[in-house]
Amino acid sequence: MTEPGSGNEAETHDVVNLEDELSGQSCAAPVAKPRSKVHDHFTLKVQDDRYHCNYCRNISYKRNKTGVVSGPLKHLKATHPKLLDESSTIPQKRTSIFDHCEVQPFHDMTLQVKSNEYPSISLYALIYIHLYRHVEKYIPETSKPTHGIDQTTQQKYPDWLISAAKDAYNKMDKYYPESDGLVYVVATGPIINKYKKMITNEWNQHYKPNISTSSEDMDSANSTSQLVEDLFSQQMKSQNLQTKSEIDRYLTSPVANANDTAGGPVKWWMDRKFEYPSLSQMALDYLAVPGSGASVERMFSNGVDLISHRRHSLASETIQKAMCLRGWKLSANQTEFKKLHRQSTVEKFLGDK
C-alpha cells in the first residue's frame, strides 16, 4: 500500500475503510463504502492501537496523524496474495496462510524437532498434543464456546480458516495413530526393565570399581569439604554414598529435564563424569559406537591403500595407529579426502583395470 499523498486514491480508500470498519467508528462521509478487502485479515488491538495481521507474528500497522493506516494492503499483496484473489480456492488460500501463518506452532515445532539432535518419542507426543490444542481453537464446538471464536474481536473465524483447521486436524488424526504412539508408550515399560538388567550386568562384569578404591577416591575428594562441614553430617553422607553404587544412584535419580539434555547424551555424561566417574566411562564407551557401520566400513575398505603387498607383516597395533593418523590428516583436508574416496570407489567398481 502506498503512503498517504502518493496519489493512489484506490488503495488509500481501502485503508481508510479498514480503519472505519475495524475500529467500529462510522465513516465521516455519508456515502456507503464497500467492504474492505483486508477487513478479515487484520485485527485492531486496543492494547497498542495497532492493526495486527491475523497470520504473521510481529506484523502490525499504526494510524498516522490523519487517521490513515498505511501498509496492510501492501503486506497482503506481498505476503498473502491468494487471500485477495476472489477466484482462489480454499486449498490455495490455506497454502498462502500456512506459509506465513499464525498457525505458527507448526513452524515452531518443526524447528524444535530439527534443533534436537536426539529427538525422543516423548517429544513427538508432546508436539502432537500441542498442535492438536492449537488447531482445535479454530474449530467451532458446542461444548467449548471459545472454540471457533477470535478472542480479540469476539467474531467467528472465516470459513476458509475453519476449513483449513479441520483439514489439519484430520491429517494429524490420521498420522498420529499410524505412528503407534500409544503402542510405544505401553511398550516402554518392559523395554526399560529389560535394558536395566542388561546395563546392570554389563556394569557388574566390566565397569564396577573396586570397593576399596572407590572408598579411597571418595575420602580424597571429600577431604577439603570435611574441614568446613560438620563431621557427623559428613560421615552420614559418606556412608550413604558408599552403600549405593553409581548405577543404583543413577537408576533411582529423577528423570533429566529437557534443558539438561539439550546438548545430547554425550555432553550430559561429560558434565557428570565426576558424579558418575565409572558409569560415565561406560556410557561414553557405548555412545562412541557409530549408529551406522557405513563410515567404519568405508574407513577399513581403504585399508588396502595402506597395507601393500610388502607390508603384510605389520602388527595390528601399527596398522591401527597408521589408519588413525591417516584419518586425522584427511579430516584436516576435505578436498584430498573426497578425491581419495572417489578414486577408491572407482577402483572397487573397475577392479584391477
UniProtKB/TrEMBL annotation:
Localization per Swiss-Prot or TrEMBL: Nucleus
Principal subcellular localisation of the protein: nucleus
MF-aspect GO terms: protein dimerization activity; zinc ion binding
One Gene Ontology cellular component annotation held by this UniProt entry: nucleus
Metal-binding is among the record's keywords: yes
Pfam families per record: Dimer_Tnp_hAT
Stretches assigned to the HAT C-terminal dimerisation domain: 246-328
This protein's UniProt keywords: Metal-binding, Nucleus, Zinc, Zinc-finger
Protein's recorded name: Zinc finger BED domain-containing protein DAYSLEEPER
Organism the protein comes from: Folsomia candida
